[in-house]
Amino acid sequence: GGEGAGKSTLAKTLAAKLEARGVRCLVTREPGGSPKAETIRSALLAGEIAPFGAFAEALMFQAARIDHLDQTIFPALRRGQWVISDRFADSTRAYQGAVGRLDPVLIAGLERAALGAFRPALTLILDLPVTIGLARADARRGTGQADRFEKEGRDFHERLREAYLRIGEDEPGRCVVIDAAPPADAVAE
Ligand code: Z5A
After folding, report:
1. Is the CB of 31 under 6 A from ligand 1?
2. Whether the CB of 146 sits within 6 Å of ligand 1
């Protein structure tokens, strides 16, 4: 989901609930989730790649994802852990594809290059009116600086919300759309 939807909050709660049932979990995030991918994250969020355009950003998100898969996700799955990733490939589809207006065929090709046949077993899409999400993110940021994506306007975030809902409609077997407006406990339940 978009900004302030509650992804990080839910990822932690979900992991705690699963651990309480004896399921070993790893919580990770994108961009990032491995030392090299965290380096790419810093450059992306600082806006250092943005001047090169949406395609260069998509390439960098996928490059980070390849390392995240190799160094963190696949080893954890091999150890028998469940992996909960705060964002994954759908974020490239939504941000760089739908909102960045890159050709969906190009985005699909990049995704195939990074993921091969791998897909998450389940994707939770947190859906929230843009005003609420931005207010939550603003409140959490306080006086801190907005990053590359937080600086975008309302129209960007509206298009993003539509893009995620479309992904949910297109792949109902993998995706579940959750109303993220209620309090965090209710969303987690
Ligand atoms: N990006 C991309 O363009 N392409 C890609 O392929 C990928 C990412 C993978 C990463 O930023 C940026 O990279 C992101 C997309 C882009 N753009 N942005 N912006 P990030 O990792 O720094 O941030 P984020 O992923 O957008 O998440 P976030 O802004 O940190 O929000 P969140 O994880 O969804 O929310 P939260 O941290 O759980 O909650 C936000 C606040 O709301 C916090 O104070 C909570 O206590 C509160 N909260 C949470 N849930 C609730 C409920 N239910 N009610 C009330 N308050 C709540």
Report:
1. yes
2. no
pTM for this model (two decimals): 0.95
- Take residue 174 and report the two structure tokens written for it: 């993998």
What tens digit of pLDDT does each residue of 37-82 get? 999 999 999 999 999 999 999 999 999 999 999 999 999 999 999 9
CA distance 15 to 17: 5
One-character DSSP codes across 39-72: HHHHHHHTTSSGGG-HHHHHHHHHHHHHHHIIII
> Is residue 5 within 6 Å of ligand 1 at its C-beta?
yes
Q: Which two tokens stand for residue 10?
A: 């839910």
What is the distance between the alpha carbons of residues 62 and 175, in angstroms, rounded to a whole number?
21
pLDDT in tens, 92-101: 999 999 998 8
Q: Which distant-in-sequence residues (6+ apart) come within 8 Å of 60 by Cβ?
A: 31, 40, 43, 44, 49
Q: Which of 95, 113, 109, 16 is nearest to 49 (CA)?
A: 95
